């Protein structure tokens, strides 16, 4: 269990760093007027790509949990 906590912490740090780098790149490439739209789209894609909710739901379905 200790190893799982350590790996999740490392994964969280990498995800946060990736989000920051993408925000900086978008601010360099996209104009100020369109920046909010593009960052919103990227955050939606990133949020659905993690699959936390879908994975939890499928895991519960397989184990017979509620």
Terminal Cα separation, in Å? 23 Å
Proportion of beta-strand residues: under 5%
Strand segment tally: 0
Q: How much helical structure, as a percent, in the residues?
A: over 70%
Mean pLDDT: 78
In N-to-C order, the SSE pattern is HHH
Structural class, from secondary structure content? mainly alpha
What Rg, in angstroms, do the CA atoms define? Answer: 16 Å
**Number of helical segments with 4 or more residues:** 3
Q: What overall geometry do the principal axes of the alpha carbons give?
A: flat
Give the low-pLDDT segments: none
Major sheet? none
Task: Give the secondary structure arrangement, pairings included.
Elements: H1 2-29, H2 32-50, H3 52-63
Helix pairs in contact: 1-2
